[in-house]
Known about the structure:
The protein has six helices and no strands. The chain has helices spanning 14-25, 29-42, 46-49, 52-58, 64-82, 87-102.
Amino acid sequence: MSVKVTTCFCVIPNEVFQAIFSACRSDNFDLANKDVNNVIAEGYPLSYFFQLYDIVVDADNICDEQKARVCKKFAEADKCLVDGADEYLQLLKQQAVQCAALSNMPQDMAF
């Protein structure tokens, strides 16, 4: 008996990623918040949302320090999700950090 395993049953459209990335670059958190609400309303699992990581890493117009701040938050959010945290709150926090990093805001004190 052979079993066919599908590794990805949900593909988030590239337009969703581009909209969120553009909202974060616009320095307007309200736009990013709206996009987060849309992602959650569409029912996309946050684990697939981490594909945005590729867009951040491949972006040529973002400095390494900004990429590091965003990628660190991706790792923290992933850990929190494994521990049972709320997807909406983790995505919103991720987008807040991404907006701050891409807008060159100073990094806040770490807790």
